[in-house]
Automatic annotation (TrEMBL), chain A:
Full protein name: ABC-type D-xylose/L-arabinose transporter
Occurrences of domain ABC transporter (ranges): 3-238
Record carries keyword Iron: no
High-level lineage: Archaea, Methanobacteriati, Methanobacteriota, Stenosarchaea group, Halobacteria
Catalysed reactions, as listed in the record: D-xylose(out) + ATP + H2O = D-xylose(in) + ADP + phosphate + H(+); L-arabinose(out) + ATP + H2O = L-arabinose(in) + ADP + phosphate + H(+)
Membrane topology (UniProt): Peripheral membrane protein
PANTHER family documented for this protein: MALTODEXTRIN IMPORT ATP-BINDING PROTEIN MSMX, TREHALOSE IMPORT ATP-BINDING PROTEIN SUGC
Organism: Natrialba taiwanensis DSM 12281
Known role: Part of the ABC transporter complex XacGHIJK involved in the uptake of xylose and arabinose. Responsible for energy coupling to the transport system.
Automatic annotation (TrEMBL), chain B:
Name this polypeptide is given: Binding-protein-dependent transporters inner membrane component
InterPro entries: MetI-like, MetI-like_sf
One family name in Pfam for this protein: BPD_transp_1
GO terms under cellular component: plasma membrane
Keywords: Cell membrane, Membrane, Transmembrane, Transmembrane helix, Transport
Topology versus the membrane: Multi-pass membrane protein
């Protein structure tokens, strides 16, 4: 199965405000067996997209096809999709077993066969001993496993996830991530996974699609969107801690480009061709906090230390500069001192340049 | 630290005073809070019931202050009375018929109101006014609508051939009971709606969305999600409606006075007739006590069979 989303638009009419364009001409293809994550800040249209694919919402324009079958107008009952909700949505009046076999029961599968499927799924999810309990007596993580099981037993042709881990704590998320990956691998159908958590997107996906304000920004493998973001939004959204940006000015470009950032100038390996039209113009310099070093004030951007967030293996240090607060990933032993003057040294080979108006990456 | 010591000695002192009563400060407050309710309950409920049981043991001519103790003979009279058993049967018919109609209509209205996207609040308020219309008004309007000369329902019925052109439907043996049930249900169905609607609104949309994804049809969603989620309140509503209708007096009396030829004489009507028309207050009280016992047994069996309280918690 392959899911094709073509030029899909979803507009909401609201009575007391202007029309809200939740999704704006989105085109995406999810290949068979591909794990595609739709990621973006809240309100970017990712959940609306997923609901349209599920059939719980209908696009205003555009089409959704599964293989060659146009499903745009079909109700969810006829789409053979599985959907895992953020708030889990287990039926509180049914036991875990009844919850898990519900889809099969609706499909008219005989009881002994249902039991077999449920037992299989429960073993895979390690909830075999919970089957006769009521959902309310399970922990959040176990409940989400049951919900996963409910989707899994039906052997769907498309698997959808709507921020299924947002309500779980960090440790449970890490436990559940490999479970989700194993199960989706096993089913081998196209997977559309919606989240606002870039870490989830990076760790689980074959491909990530980043959305902002209803529009698709970029779709690519995790490495691709991390190292070659198409614009400053993607650069900032993907990666932890977020990419730091500095307003700068391109002084000259011939072999290396001299870029001034306040009083400080860096020279980047870029040819005049690459920076055509930007010489003698403003740009934004983007650097990941991992690529910023600490030195003397004379060597880099003058900075004053604000605080350290030690993580054990590394430290996130926050400095105040003329460009605002800047986060730098420092050595685990780094211990900042408010009275010392520091200079932030950018790794020149790792810096990226963005158009200050459109945000598009130019180098 | 110092404070604690002082307080603990104070408590010990007070204990020595109240200790014999087994009361500490908290228990005393507890009793003081509960006492008014207990007194009120004694005064409003227990005393009249006790009085009725007491009076049922006497022969009490209504206008004569002299009561003659007759032991259980009133009960013997009640239980051997043909009209008692026929009234019990009619009362049960009225109770079951009314409860079933009210349950179905009330639930239906609730489901429809819950489906509305617009005007839900307004229409809910409109539907609820039926419950606020005084019974007298309901009866007057009903009598007018069944009037042989101008009544719209009379004409509709006689046109359909249900009853003759000159037949007063409420005075007709075959129709009286069903019509009393329907007229009562017009007013009281909304009681079930009030109960169910709040519970229906509390069912998250997610449950239905999850069911749709599983492929469930409308009927399957109703059967597997809606119904189980409202069973608890429905059981309570049915119990309350059944008890209320078994004891219903006003609407039946005003519509038919128990007629025609006793076709709508339920137990409350019979008890009233016995007390105030046959002047036999003692027997009427015995009848009321028997009704009370029957209802208590019925309610006990109902709770044993369904346990509505447990359902509401989930």
């Amino acid at each position: 199965m392959t899911v094709h989303i073509d030029n899909m638009t979803r507009v909401f009419d609201s009575p007391n405000a202007d029309r809200i364009v939740a999704v704006d001409e989105l085109s995406l293809t999810i290949e068979d067996g591909e794990f595609l994550t739709l990621v973006g800040p809240s309100g970017c249209g990712k959940t609306t997209t997923l609901r349209c694919v599920a059939g719980l919402d209908t696009p205003t324009a555009g089409t959704i096809r599964v293989d060659d079958r146009d499903v745009t107008e079909l109700p969810p009952q006829q789409r053979d999709v599985a959907l895992l909700f953020q708030d889990i949505a287990l039926y509180p009046h049914m036991s875990v077993r009844k919850n898990m076999e519900y889809g099969l029961k609706i499909a008219g599968v005989p009881e002994d066969e249902r039991r077999e499927h449920v037992a299989e799924a429960a073993a895979l999810l390690q909830i075999g001993d919970q089957l006769d309990k009521m959902p309310a007596s399970l922990s959040g993580g176990q409940q989400q496993r049951v919900a996963l099981g409910r989707s899994l037993v039906r052997d769907p042709s498309v698997f959808l996830f709507d921020e299924p881990m947002s309500d779980l704590d960090a440790k449970l998320k890490r436990e559940l991530r490999p479970v989700v990956q194993r199960i989706t691998d096993e089913i081998g159908c196209p997977v559309l996974y919606v989240t606002h958590d870039q870490e989830e997107a990076m760790t689980m996906s074959d491909r990530i699609a980043i959305m902002d304000d209803g529009e698709l920004q970029q779709a690519g493998s995790p490495k691709e969107v991390y190292s070659e973001p198409i614009n400053d939004f993607v650069g900032e959204f993907i990666g932890q801690p977020a990419m730091e940006f500095f307003d700068a000015h391109v002084e000259s470009a011939n072999g290396t480009a001299a870029v001034s950032m306040g009083d400080h100038t860096v020279s980047l390996p870029a040819t005049a061709d690459e920076l055509e039209g930007y010489v003698d113009s403003p740009v934004r310099v983007g650097v990941r906090p991992q690529q910023i070093g600490i030195g003397d004030p004379a060597e880099g951007i003058e900075a004053e230390h604000v605080l350290d967030e030690p993580l054990g293996d590394e430290t996130h240090s926050i400095f105040e500069t003329e460009f605002g607060d800047v986060t730098v990933v420092t050595h685990a032993d780094f211990d900042g001192d408010g009275d010392t003057e520091y200079g932030l040294v950018l790794d020149e080979s790792a810096t990226q340049l963005f158009d200050p108006d459109s945000g598009v990456r130019i180098h | 630290m110092a404070n604690e010591t002082v307080e603990s000695t104070a408590t010990t002192d007070r204990r020595s005073v109240r200790g014999r009563l087994g009361l500490d400060g908290e228990a005393l407050w507890g009793w003081a809070t509960v006492a008014p309710v207990i007194l009120l309950y004694l005064f409003v409920a227990v005393t009249p019931i006790a009085f009725a049981i007491y009076a049922s043991l006497f022969e009490v001519p209504l206008l004569n202050p002299d009561w003659t103790f007759t032991g259980l003979s009133n009960y013997v009279e009640v239980l051997t009375m043909n009209s008692f058993w026929s009234s019990l049967w009619l009362g049960a018919l009225f109770m079951v018929g009314s409860t079933v109609v009210q349950l179905l209509v009330g639930l239906w209205i609730a489901l429809v109101l819950n489906q509305l996207d617009r005007g839900q609040r307004f229409l809910t308020a409109v539907a609820f006014t039926a419950y606020l219309v005084p019974t007298v008004i309901v009866v007057l309007v009903a009598l007018f609508m069944f009037d042989v000369e101008v009544g719209v329902l009379h004409i509709a019925g006689s046109t359909l051939g249900l009853w003759g052109e000159r037949t007063f439907a409420l005075g007709d043996q075959t129709w009286a009971m069903s019509l009393v049930v329907l007229i009562g249900s017009w007013k009281f169905s909304i009681f079930v709606t009030i109960f169910t609607l709040a519970q229906l609104r509390a069912i998250p949309d997610r449950f239905y969305e999850a069911a749709k994804i599983c492929g469930a049809s409308r009927w399957e969603m109703f059967r597997d999600i809606t119904l189980p989620r409202i069973t608890g309140v429905l059981l309570i509503a049915v119990l309350l409606r059944a008890v209320f209708m078994f004891n219903k007096f006003d609407i039946i009396w005003m519509l038919t006075e128990g007629g025609p030829a006793g076709a709508t004489t339920t137990l409350p009507i019979l008890a009233y007739r016995t007390a105030f028309l046959h002047n036999d207050y003692g027997v009427a009280n015995a009848m009321a006590v028997v009704m009370f016992v029957f209802l208590a047994i019925g309610a006990y069996c109902y709770f044993r069979a369904f346990d509505p309280t447990a359902e509401v918690d989930t």
